[in-house]
Design goal:
- The structure is a homotrimer of 348-residue chains.
- In chain A, 20% of the residues lie in helices and 30% in strands.
- In chain A, a hairpin with a 5-residue loop joins strand 5 and strand 6.
- The radius of gyration of chain A is 20 Å and the shape is globular.
- Chain A folds into 2 domains: 130 residues, Hotdog Thioesterase (Thiol Ester Dehydrase, Chain A), CATH 3.10.129; 182 residues, Thiol Ester Dehydrase, Chain A.
- By secondary structure, chain A is of the alpha+beta class.
- In chain A, strands 1, 2, 3, 4, 5, 6, 7, 8, 9, 10, 11 and 12 form a 12-stranded antiparallel beta sheet that branches.
- Chains B and C meet through helix 1, helix 3, helix 5, strand 8 and helix 6 of B and strand 2, helix 1, helix 6 and helix 7 of C.
């Protein structure tokens, strides 16, 4: 028997199956420093202990998406090593902050299976959860991936496609314990725009662009202990469809989210991931831009509201044009990311 | 009203204006690890807790220039987002060490304004200060930048150009509290040359070279939360005068200073920045070399003296030749940096 | 007298000479985060405090090879600045774990000298040791390098070539104090294969490949404070034999070892380095693959055994083919590393 991990194929998954993922990771301020160095993040609550403490937290947590990438990375060897495509995300929630010194681990439950009509692949739906060292769930999300069959003659399982909400409902959002905005300093946060200053339908161009280098996305993806081969192996990729290393989709999410600081600087903590599509592949040398649309708003408590944001990532195209889809509902060729999330933002 | 930060234009500044800069940052050993990974710094007092403790400090502080870059980065969105050029530095002093766990924040006062005769731009002089979480000032410096006007028909302000010292006076230098050289180990520090071994006019070639990669300067500049667009956006820069991303001038200062270890290994802490010019732009692929000239010397106390050092950064040229200016006082084409600082060095 | 370090030449070394190396370094979780970002390491004991604690350690130590590179880096300015070639390693042992907050320092003893018949170079054998801040030896190893003579007319020293063991004997391996496997969780470790599952002569392809970028190996090598010029200076290297920056051999060792997780995931701690050859140079753009052969096995205690592993690093070639040498005992052109080490692995 081979000792190397060949990953799971479609017929290895069963509805209800629980998968414990390998390699717990103790995160630290170093991971956050990497996050800043890789994406240029400037949300103050994640940047400074003093600012986080002024909001009632014990210190600066790790950036929400950083924790997400770590948990996601752990699922890769079991869920998506033989994936053809990462089809979508839904029902993601951040349940409590992750702090330096916490150890993150992950597990997943298989909640849906549907073989494709070609008999070669199938779609696997998993509900993945991240835990800290106290066994507390810090996040959860559903994703579905198209996975190769090992043996095309293997019988198809009974198809089951789970019902997934279009978006996390506003009243399911979890405000971190003790968080308040009593002493919120907009000058230190870098934005003077609060919950009430935004309106549904508003579109915001985030102006700035970031060009991606191979060393950057490789270091990021390894930091997250994500093992998907396509991100690292140019010798193999040169013979692939694109001839290039593919950049981890989460790298583009984080770049777009960091760019969105310029316009959404107070929308500081991600509370939920409603959905997300990696519309087109991104390669080293591409410059990522982003624009956002406010899709919905929800009052959380006296201090905070939540903005539901569509975050659109573009490559090599001006975000002021708010490019998205054409009249046939086809994505513009510059769109690489269509991401839908809820963010917490103080009231004014 | 746009929610994105368009930065300040020349007519937005007024003499005496106080600007609180955004995004305090809690620094840690991770920032120092990045500094080592990016520049190869080896000054022992910043490298090892044990060495710093042998000199009377509680532990290894963060490298002086690292703290400088963090403070500088915070000023960019308010001061130099619309800058045409960073013209100079003066009167910079490091007032106390910055330690892992400290939170750095920054503010600036506008101390000079002078519109240029073309009516399109003006020079803004600011005095910037960095503070730790206790509100103690850890550094201060003046810089002046040429900034675009938003509206060329806006009236010129009354011109005021502050008087700036050619160099910080030796008796204004601040030796960190409690610092001594009783147990200084030159073998561990990596140099056997002390204060008395140097003389005014001495020139030292630092021999080694470092080639800069795009991923390196981008990661550095983002780590410092510096948002100047020209460093990151190749899609926009391809149509610029140089067709390339420009490297943050501070990246070159740090590379040159780290190279200067080879010859100035005991000149371990920067105490003041007397001046600095980014003589020519640097691009990825350039190899940086450095040489130094001792401009002045000053006795600090029984244990330490200070060397005033001219640090010259070259690209793609041999530092043994001490290239600087021609007979018409014009910089040699290889010179990218002409930097003037005071460094603390133990007596022998 | 020049103030720059020109390094030692062959005639500067004497048998019995003790060399204290410069620049102690306080290591931290940041160094481990870099190690993960650079190599994608996933050995659980180094990744998570919780996992390390379940094995009886106070927390996650720093990766063995990371500590090795730091100690090695310190020896470079004194031992190999004028080296023509790094010829080999032997008798390396890891004596106790290195933890975040420890300060590493290094010293070496010259144990052998032999001038080459050309009169231009000689071979220097040194026994190097790394220490923590308590003065405890954390590792030791021997390496030998070919070093230039400064003056070819200098007389040859009496030749002495030390006897070096082919491999560290199994009963000289040091299991970290208190380490046990009572609660070892293979699902979290990422491998279900234990000591008894391996056999001598077994060959394992590690499947995955990693393409190296210039920014990556430069950042790694500077993080280790390794000052060998050939890794950093493209301006000088363009006129060298290869026309390129050479990648630090240790970078390739770490990449190959990290790749070996896929097949040796429970062989979690390196206990000894028996030998190693950098068979051919590696350059940015090369994709590294690895395969291993089990050379020997040794029972350590009730909980653990040790595997003696030959780790072969390849560039741009399929590890499934187990390429090594041809019938004339000449290395295949794809082989860049032939490394021999002992690893600790739990019993099943």
């Amino acid at each position: 028997m081979s000792k190397t991990n060949e990953g799971n194929y479609f017929e290895d998954f069963q509805i209800g199956q629980e998968i414990i993922h390998a390699t717990p990771l103790t995160v630290s301020g170093a991971d956050q420093a990497f996050y800043t160095a890789l994406y240029g993040s400037r949300f103050a609550v994640y940047s400074a202990d003093t600012f986080a403490q002024s909001m009632g937290l014990p210190g600066a947590p790790l950036e929400d998406l950083l924790a997400f990438h770590v948990v996601f990375g752990k699922t890769v060897p079991d869920i998506s090593l033989n994936a053809v495509a990462n089809l979508g995300y839904a029902e993601g929630r951040f349940l409590q902050p992750v702090y330096p010194g916490d150890t993150l681990s992950a597990s997943s439950e298989v909640i849906g299976l549907k073989e494709n009509s070609n008999g070669k692949t199938g779609v696997v739906y998993v509900r993945s959860s991240g835990f800290n060292q106290h066994g507390e769930k810090v996040m959860e999300y559903t994703r579905w991936v198209m996975v190769n069959k090992r043996d095309q003659s293997a019988p198809a399982p009974t198809a089951f496609v789970p019902h997934l909400a279009d978006a996390v409902s506003g009243n399911e959002l979890v405000v971190p314990n003790g968080l308040h905005a009593n002493n919120y300093e907009p000058a230190r946060a870098g934005s003077s725009h609060f919950y009430e200053d935004y309106h549904i339908g508003e579109k915001i161009s985030h102006v700035d662009g970031m060009t991606i280098e191979e060393a950057e996305h490789q270091m990021a993806t390894r930091l997250f202990q994500n093992t998907a081969k396509v991100h690292f192996d140019q010798h193999a990729q040169k013979d692939s469809r694109f001839g290039r290393r593919l950049i981890y989709g989460g790298h583009v999410i984080s770049l777009a989210r960091a760019l969105s600081f310029n316009g959404l600087g107070n929308a500081c903590m991600m509370l939920a991931i409603n959905g997300g599509r990696h519309v087109a592949p991104t390669f080293a040398g591409d410059t990522i831009y982003a624009w956002s649309e406010i899709l919905d708003m929800h009052e959380l408590d006296d201090d905070f509201g939540a903005l539901r944001v569509r975050l659109v990532g573009l490559k090599n195209a001006n975000p002021n044009d708010h490019l998205l889809k054409d009249s046939q509902d086809k994505y513009d060729s510059s769109v690489v990311l269509d991401f839908d999330y809820w963010a917490l933002i103080p009231k004014g």
